[in-house]
């Protein structure tokens, strides 16, 4: 799964996909999904990310994020001041660091819920599809929300509990914090962004 990972660049959205090792269906249990949702929120706060959408599938998740300049600058300064392993080129290591912390932060809590899981249940690396044209954002959001439908897990995105669809379209309270201001900046409603408004 090792893909060339994009460097941090201001103004670029990232469609991140992270997969479990051997495509093992880890996220079939609400408790394990909740751990991942909590870590998505923690990463969002820690790295000052904007989140447009996500979907957690049994063996992978998609996450549409925008790393802010302030979050990157904080990371770069911290690495340079500490002489950290990413100090030589923070822009090349920013996204890998976010995903590394996310994986590390989910592994032990999820294993506590199910001791039969291997110590390392994440596949190494991740996929990153940079998106510099924000007008394509609604297409990517639709792709994410239709993933469980294409996989045969539900008939309609509203029926799948582990995605941002119900928060964006139905305005239901949601466990993963989404940044609705994104859609305001595009002058479209979140429901229209996902093709229903």
Give structural notes.
The protein has 197 residues and is an alpha+beta fold. It has one domain: Alpha-Beta Plaits. Helix content is 42%, strand content 14%. The chain has seven helices and four strands. A four-stranded antiparallel sheet has the order 2-3-1-4, with helices on both faces. A hairpin with a 3-residue loop joins β2 and β3. α1 packs antiparallel against α3. It is globular and about 50 Å long. It starts with 12 loop residues before the first strand and ends with a helix. The mean pLDDT is 88.
Structural class: alpha+beta
State the CATH architecture: 2-Layer Sandwich
CATH class: Alpha Beta
Our measurement of the CA-to-CA distance between the termini, rounded to an integer number of angstroms, reads 36 Å
CATH fold-level assignment: Alpha-Beta Plaits
Report the CATH superfamily.
Answer: Transposase IS200-like
How many domains, in number, for the residues? 1
DSSP summary: helix tally = 7
What is the element string, with H for helices and E for strands?
A: EHEEHHEHHHH
Report the average pLDDT across residues: 88
Identify low-pLDDT runs: none
């Amino acid at each position: 799964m090792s893909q060339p990972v994009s460097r941090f660049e201001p103004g670029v959205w990232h469609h991140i996909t992270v997969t479990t090792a051997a495509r093992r269906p880890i996220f079939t249990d609400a408790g394990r999904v909740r751990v991942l949702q909590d870590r998505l929120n923690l990463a969002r706060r820690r790295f000052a990310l904007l989140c447009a959408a996500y979907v957690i599938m049994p063996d992978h998740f998609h996450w549409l994020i925008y790393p802010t300049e302030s979050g990157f600058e904080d990371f770069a300064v911290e690495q340079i001041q500490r002489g950290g392993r990413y100090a030589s080129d923070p822009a090349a290591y920013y996204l890998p660091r976010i995903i590394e912390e996310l994986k590390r932060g989910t592994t032990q809590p999820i294993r506590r819920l199910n001791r039969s899981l291997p110590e390392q249940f994440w596949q190494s690396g991740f996929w990153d599809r940079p998106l510099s044209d924000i007008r394509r954002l609604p297409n990517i959001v639709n792709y994410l929300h239709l993933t469980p439908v294409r996989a045969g897990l539900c008939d309609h995105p509203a029926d799948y509990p582990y995605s941002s669809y119900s928060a964006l379209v139905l305005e239901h309270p949601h466990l993963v914090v989404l940044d609705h201001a994104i859609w305001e900046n595009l002058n479209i409603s979140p429901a229209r962004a996902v093709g229903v408004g």
